[in-house]
Structure formats: C-alpha cells, structure tokens
Write a structure and sequence with these properties.
Layout: H1 2-12, H2 16-37, E1 48-49, E2 51-59, E3 62-70, H3 72-75, E4 85-92, H4 95-106, E5 109-110, E6 117-121, H5 128-140, E7 148-152, H6 156-165, H7 170-179, H8 192-201, E8 205-214, E9 217-227, E10 230-235, H9 237-246, E11 252-256, E12 262-277, E13 280-295, H10 300-321, H11 333-336, H12 338-344, H13 348-353, E14 355-365
Parallel strand pairs: 1-5, 2-6, 6-7, 7-8, 13-14
Antiparallel strand pairs: 2-3, 3-4, 8-9, 9-10, 11-12, 12-13
Helix pairs in contact: 5-8, 9-10
C-alpha cells in the first residue's frame, strides 16, 4: 500500500503549469479541428461537442452514457481554473442509439477524437453490451485507439462531479496520471486499442485499473483481471505491480523490506523457461535488477529473498483463488515451449490448473 500512497501523493501535488500546458495542447487540437470543420460542407465549431472523458454504464437493459466536456472558451484560456465543465447524459437500447440520441437532443455533433478516457461502470464488462460497444467503436472508428480505459464502482454522478472540482477536466487528469507515472511503462496501460485486439485474439492477461473517488480525487484502488477476454475478478495494487514486473513493463520498483529499510530496483529484466513432467508445468522465472538503497543497509541476499517471496506469494495466491496467471505465461508457450503448447493446445484452463512457479532473483547493488 505504500506504493499506492506515494503514487496518490504525487498525483495530488500535480504541477499547475502542466495543467495549463495540457489545456493549451487540447486547445490547439480543438482549434485545428475547428479550422478543418469550417466551410460550407463542415460542421460549425459551436455545433460540436468534444468530450474529454466518457462514462458508460448499463442499467435495466439500457445504455447510460455521460459525456464530460469543457467549454471551448475555457479550453483555449490557459488561465482557466477548470470550471465551466459540462456533463451531459443520454440513454438508449444500444451505444450507437445513445450516441445518436445525444446529438439529436443537444443539436450538436459529438467529436470523440480528443477523448482521453472511457470509464466503464461496474458490471458493464460482464454484459453483452460490452462486446457490442467494442463492435461499434471498431466499425464507426470514432475513438482514438490510444484512449485510456478504466472501471469504476463509484456512481456516475460522483465521477461526473470530478469534472467540476478538479483543476483540469477529468479526462485530462487521468491522462496526466499516466504521463507522471514513474514506475510503469506507457505500454502497460490498457486502451481501447488493447481491448479491440484482445477481443479479436483472446490471448492475454489484462489488468484494467479501477477508479474510486477519495478526498475529491480519482484514485486507482484495484485492478480488474481479464483473461481470454473474460473478467476474472479484482487483484490488488501490489499484485498488479508484480504483473507489470513480470511483463517487463516496470521502469523501477520500490521494495519495502520493513519500516526502516527500502530499496529501489532499476533496470529490471525478466526471463522465463518452461518444463513439463507428468503433466505438471513448471515456469522458471529469473528476475535480474540493480538495487539502490533508499533507507537502511539491506544486504543483497535479503533483497533477493524478499522479492522472490513476494512474486511467489502474489502469483500463487491469484492462481489458486481466481485462476489468474499474473505471469501471463500461456501466451509464451507457442514460441518458447511448443511441446507444452501441443500438449495443452487451447485447454488454457487445464494448463493453469497444472502450473507451478519457480522464482529466482539476482540483484546487483549499486
């Protein structure tokens, strides 16, 4: 949890200058879009809406969508304090119908090309509506593929209220959270493009961040695990850290040995091999890292033991409780262990039931 607390503090101390720069960049994009729309055949700027975040839910068999936008006059003003936001809701039997209903009711055209984040509410991923939503996004090509994806258990009204209270619009705030992330690499974040690829291939383990509202700020409190394009339940922030580590998506990692001793791991590398005996598959994981002491005088051997135990505990617990393989190992079988791949084929669930981990860590003190 120390990792999560440090991340939250960094987000709360966000530099105002970055907020102004973000608004200026957004303004430049919107004004360019406006220039392209001018003319007899285009749509006038005042007749368009540019949501920076979209909240999507399903209630009683109907889509409920909330479009969070900022008035263009405020976007263009880099001294704006984040006010003059709009939060407009629409509903329909499908996402496409909801989209059309909003445009008719508000007499404007939605432009989703500048949307920073899509936030699905609890239960949406398990519904048929989720697949239909992605099908619509693919066919209509309305969103950018790098649009960030989140889940939230919070009420739609509470998430929408953040658009008024944050220094910058909610969509921009979430984008800045990823840009300011020091531990995790950019490719670790789930986007609409990631979901569209997984819908087609169903081959990866994905972790989708879950947002809650705490002290007036959006905070990532857990992650929704998705395997084979099916939801598998929530994993903790610390378990997600192990997932990113094994996927080669960690730039650095703070390891707390106890209250007095902390080290920072950098230049993290993960290698793996597979062996099978009597149907049991052993995934041998070798982690290498350089370590910098932050506090205390931790010995290299202790760091290696603590990290190895942490990896084994997280991976073993999730595999046992929810069948979630945090090492995402099945996607490597065809290339690295074709004999095991032939033995289990597409029986991924049976493969995971016969999977065990052997973790080794090598640390170099610097």
């Amino acid at each position: 949890m120390e990792w999560l607390e440090q991340k939250s503090k960094r987000n709360q101390k966000k530099d105002r200058k970055k907020g102004r720069i973000s608004r200026s960049c957004t303004a430049a994009c919107l004004l360019l879009a406006a220039f392209c729309c001018c003319g007899c055949a285009g749509t006038e700027l005042e007749n368009k809406s540019f949501p920076l975040a979209v909240i999507v839910a399903q209630q009683d068999g109907r889509h409920e969508v909330c479009y969070l936008a900022q008035q263009l006059s405020e976007v263009a003003n880099e001294r704006a304090d984040g006010g003059n936001m709009t939060a407009a809701q629409a509903s329909g039997s499908t996402y496409y119908e909801t989209h059309q209903s909003f445009e008719k009711s508000n007499r404007c055209k939605l432009d989703m090309t500048h949307t920073k984040a899509v936030i699905f509410q609890k239960g949406f991923l398990e519904s048929r509506a989720f697949t239909v939503f992605l099908d619509t996004v693919r066919s209509e090509n309305t969103y950018a593929r790098n649009t960030l994806v989140y889940l939230s258990d919070a009420k739609m009204e509470d998430m929408a209220e953040l658009n008024n209270t944050l220094e910058v619009p909610l969509g921009s705030y979430l984008e800045q959270m990823t840009e300011n992330e020091r531990e995790v690499k950019e490719q670790a974040f789930v986007t609409l493009g990631t979901l569209l690829n997984e819908q087609a291939n169903a081959s990866r383990t994905l972790l989708i961040p879950v947002l809650e509202v705490e002290r007036g700020l959006p905070v990532i409190t857990s992650y929704e695990a998705m395997q084979g394009f099916e939801t598998k339940g929530r994993v903790s922030v610390s378990d997600a850290q192990i997932y990113y580590l094994l996927a080669g998506q960690m730039q650095q990692m703070d390891l707390f040995l106890d209250k007095e001793e902390q080290v920072r791991l950098i230049r993290l590398k993960c290698k793996r091999r597979f062996q099978m005996k009597d149907g049991t598959v052993t995934e041998q994981i070798l982690l290498k890292a350089d370590a910098e002491r932050v506090t205390g005088k931790s010995a290299r051997g202790r760091i290696e033991r603590v990290l190895a135990d942490k990896v084994k505990d997280s991976c073993g617990k999730e595999l046992m409780l929810d069948g979630v393989d945090l090492t995402d190992s099945s996607r490597y079988l065809a290339l690295m262990a074709p004999d095991i791949y032939r033995a289990y084929g597409k029986r991924v669930q049976m493969y995971r039931e016969n999977l065990v981990y052997d973790v080794q860590v090598q640390v170099r003190m610097i």
